[in-house]
Specification:
This protein is of the alpha/beta class. It is 30% helix and 12% strand. The protein has a domain of 234 residues: Aspartate Aminotransferase, domain 2, CATH 3.40.640.10.
Length: 429
Amino acid sequence: MKTINKPTVSLDPGDTFTWPIITFEEEEAVLDVLRRGAMSAKDVTMQFEEEYARWQGNQYALGFNNGTSALQTAMWAAGIRAGDEIISQSVTYWATILPCLSLGATPVFAEIDPDTLTIDPNDIEHRITERTNAIVVQHNCGYPTDMDPIMVLAKKHDLKVIEDIAHAQGSLYKGRKVGTFGDVSGLSLMSQKSLVAGEGGMLTTDDKDIYERAIAWGHYTRFRDKIDSEALRPYRGLPLGGYKYRMHQLSAAVGRVQLKYYDERCREIRKAMNYFWDLMERVPGVKAHRPSKESNCTMGGWYNAMGLYRPEELDGLSVTAYVNALKDEGVVAGSGINRPLHRHPLFRTCDIYGHGKPTVIAFQDRKKVKVPSLPISEAVHGRCIHPPRFKKYNPEVIEQYAEAFKKVSNNYKELLKTDPGNPPDFGSW
């Protein structure tokens, strides 16, 4: 399909896609820390923790230098140890599960639901063994995971539940914020996330023991007299993990201001994104990746907005051809999703620490790595499309983008004539 005369998208989007939103208030908050020479102190960070815990609805929050550190700490604080197994989805960002290798644990990968792109609750129980210690849940692309059946499974098998809410700050599952269902949650606050601190992470929990263990793992300046746990008290003064994971106070200063306006900004993002998907309701080939209106679930700040591509509705047209046509119409779009981790050599053959066999089984009595067959995860990259990430409700701009999608879908037969197909190494890790 060739664009006639001019692309469908012609309006200046202005601030429609601007993110993060940084104002004079953030600048002043950062300058205050700099002027006081308090970059490595903890007063601002502890204020941020208190405010975040109150907003999230958790008893405790602990700031980290990034989300990966928060997740590794969440695993250790929840009791993940050498030889354990933890179940998680394969289609996710690597930080959701990779830190378990540093603890000597083995990831066991499960299938995703093709509509939610989150872990399929029906593919968990048969993967539980006597070694299983936890389920790690990632609310992928902001979509709330179906938590009820997972929590039932966890209780039945006495497993911890760790939530990765890096994509989903403020997302609701049945009216309740994600991150408050499991035993502990970890999240990223890097500069492209919905909730921004520049670079940072946060751990939240209602379990005081988990909270104190998290402090003990990598917050040596706070691992002191206020620790109540009898098991931890003999080791006060030095971090048990040997890590220095505290949040930089410049990030905490930014995060405090961002949190003040987060709910308001998310409302506008949801209004804009839902308007786009409402316009796309009957467009063949592309389906909204969002919960139904009746579910009482929401997408939070709609980080990493995704659409579900349906090639069968377009006679098998590849998502590559579809996206190329969108670009001709003036739409900056992409395709694919993270490639499934169970196919990466790191989780199959790599001996990271010199144990003489792959790290994923270094603390187990197995000689070979079990590589699961996950057909949905292995094919999903050809069924995902990245829509525009609207941050402001500018209806005329949104309407033009939706019109471009409609034009491409309505002219798919012409695109089939020159369809290059999807590349063999589609998607990224």
